[in-house]
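assembly run, all chains below
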Amino acid sequence: MEFITTSHAEHAPDPVFHWAWLILLAPIAGFLFQAALGRRIELALGRGAGRKLLGFAAVLPVLAGFVVSVLLAIRLAGMDEHSRLVITSWFPWIDLQTLLVPFELRIDPLSLTMCLIVTGVGSLIHIYATGYMAEDRDYPRFFTYFNLFIAFMLMLVMGNNLPLVFIGWEGVGLCSYLLIGYWYQDIENAKAANKAFIVNRIGDWGFALGIFLLYWVYASNQDLLPLGERRYLSFDVILPLAEQVLAGYGPLVVSAIPLLLFVGAVGKSAQWPLYLWLPDAMAGPTPVSALIHAATMVTAGVYLVARTHVFFELSTLSMAVVAGIGAFTALFAATVAFGQTDIKKVLAYSTVSQLGYMFLACGVGAFGAGMFHVTTHAFFKALLFLGSGAVIAAMAHNQDLRNYGNLRKYIPITYWTMLIAWLAIAGIPPFAGFWSKDEILAGAFFSNLVQTPQILWLIGWVTAFLTAGYMTRMMMLTFYGNEERWRKAEAHAHAVHTHEHPHAEHAAHEEHDTAYFLSEDEVRALEEEEHEHHHDLTPEHEPHEVVPSMWLPLAALAVLSLVGGAALSGFNPFAHLLGWHLPHLFEGWNHPSVGLSVLDEASAFRESAAIEWALIGASIGAAVLGIGLFARRYIKGLPGSEAEPQGLQRLAGEQWLYDRTMVRLFVDTGGKFANAFYRIFDSGIIDGIFVNGSAKLMGAMGLLLRRSQTGSVRFYALIIAIGAAVAMSYVIYITTR
Amino acid sequence: MSLGVVVFLVMAIVIVLSAWGVVVARNPVRSALSLVINFFTLALLYFGMHIDLLGISQILVYTGLIMMLFLFCILLLNLGAPDTLFEQSLFKRSVAWFIGGVLVLAVASQVIGPLAVADAGPSAPQGFGEAGSVGKALFTGWVYAFEIASVLLLVGIVGSILLAKRRD
Amino acid sequence: MEGVPLYGYILLSALMFAIGTAGVIIKRNPIIIFMCIELMLNAANLSFLAFAKYHTAPLATTALEKWNVHMTGQMAVVFVMAVAAAEVAVGLGIIMAIFRMRHGVDIDEMSAMRG
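ok done. output:
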């Protein structure tokens, strides 16, 4: 293997950056190991020892990637602030006369930030999953998908060209599909997986079109590129030249590129109007929700926007769209979260809302703040999901908030860690969420990219208030209140339908028709397994704290949620104000060689310290107000009116009827259209006329012609002789004429 | 009319008549004997054209090999007796002969006029039909075709053995 | 046989071929049909050889090319003979097999391939 590594620094880059390939290749090796040997090892060593080994083998590559990422980050931080960009190239992947796509990795502060999140939070969630999934039937399959997901995600964030990013993009979509439908025996999970995959296709369609458009633009402007440069899709080629190349194009193309890329980001990052898949994606195991649908994959859209931010900055329209969609989604999802009774659904809408926040930051030009929020959100949202997983595990896999209450008595570690995450997401200083959220709000307030950015700030502020509110509602209903609601007779029986199926056995006998793809032996095996493990939430249930492999990651994430924001807030333009200026590596990721000028202008507006302090006060106020108001309402337990959500709350719970409308509008109407099309065009024209019609025509001709097939050899000879005579006569006739 | 032309005419008449005999004879054995006469006279004609090797091959392959096979077959299948296996319908027979006539006329119309005018006599050099020249040509320019023909013959042998084998 | 024109051979060949054709059509005994086919092949051979002897090879320039033109006709005949030998061997084998199966060789009864 030979790597060619280039850098913006004067001297040749450190060969240590070759190690970046290890970050990518280690999870791939882990994936191959799990896929090829996982089941065999489990069979050979037995369930206990085999699973221990497999769990170790699953965590190891991700952890190795994290260690290498840290080493690279230290090395990169030692470089000059304006030259923190290393590209290491392995082999040409697509090598055409008109396009060169090498297999190349990009190491800069942005990609390393994502790498650290993916491998760091990822390895914690891996450790957690070894405990959470320990009793599952398909342990190796889970970690096969998990490692594969990490590999694709790393390719997405480290790839130096859009095709590589696209591989990762599609790959994480695939893994998301596989993991949402992990308990595929339940038809609902399979449907949720399909929904995620199909909705993501819409986004991918936009992303692919954006890539094609970029290729077209750059390939037709070769003269602006360095001589002989064919890497029309590599970031180090396209990003610095974006302004010059697009100068020759009208607003249509200039806006179309970022908007198409943003369509991809909307799909992957679950923004309105494509957020629909994310709440359903909670059908997967909780570690999946934590890893994919909260901490990493869904941030890919934010990453893409940040990575290609130069194109967004060139089009004011696209910035306004990003900010508008982000702000609307943040507010919309925050309201929906109030109507949810499923603990994971609350967190799902919270994720959608927080992602909207990140896009709001990008849309107002505060890309750094957006990425900062990606980082802190990864900490506390992963923690919240893992904590909710611990709660769910403690509560016999019942996910209904209305059946919880006073759990802090039973699962104190989970309670304390989740408490930190709650305060972090609500935005209470000095927890992580405060720093990034405050930075986004300040960025929105001072933005010079959109008209009256104060409206965006106001939306963000209201959302911050609502966020504190619904998180308080969730925490209060789960951990506080003196009533232990599952002890009341007849716990909410309907909640059975929303709860997880970690052992995959319920479906086999509850709904027989959903098990049609299992053989009888498998169904019997499932039923036997069920007798061993099956337990449901009964009034006599005693919640138990989770195993150490599950609460240790919780503790680690709690530490990160506690200090992560402050430690990293050197991102923060307020750093000098608050005196939190740690030397760190994240500065300079937006250096002009990468192309970002607007950000500097935007921050130039921040002159008045008084306004900044007022903004900080306002955001703390929103958090305190939200927590206070809703703590008062829920501290005693579930209000009687919420046993069944009523009125507005119920409407919010149904996503203001958005999902239903979309389903009716596109799925049902589309189905009808497709059905009509099928009947008229497919069976009518294609089948009727072309397929069967041609066959019938041939049949009729055959019926006519078979009369000539008498089987008499001499008759055939006669025909041949007549043919020969006629042909010969004809030739003679035309040659002698 | 030179002696050569007279000899040719005699041979041609024998050839045509024996060919006719093949078709009109009721008895297959007679047909076969007519064909032997036909092939043999044809070989003599080749000798007259100084195409010696192929004349000999004609006698060996056709009159010797192929006709023997035909006779064996006839005798083995006991088809020697006169039979009625010929077309009874006068109409069909007329059609057949008419088509034959058309073919002859078509060829004649093309060869008599132009070739009679342009006929410059045989142009082949001395000894072009001798065994040496034919052998040299076979093993130089046509050696691939020769080898392929040998494979074809081998396949023919294998195929006929398989067909003749009694499957019980 | 000096003085025989080319068209004499060709006409003779054509007559043989026509008789063979008529025979194939009107005979019902497959062995005779085979013989008629041999007749037609020999007619073709005859014209090959006649052309080989009489062809003036107007396009050939070198002596070797002229020589090759004269040899080509003979080569064709050689291969026709080879093919005929193989064909007769296989064909007669088929007839024998059919006879064994059906105890009769009327070709009009062999119509199993009727459409």
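Chain B has six helices and no strands.

The two ends of chain B are 64 Å apart (CA to CA).

not gonna interpret more than that til we talk
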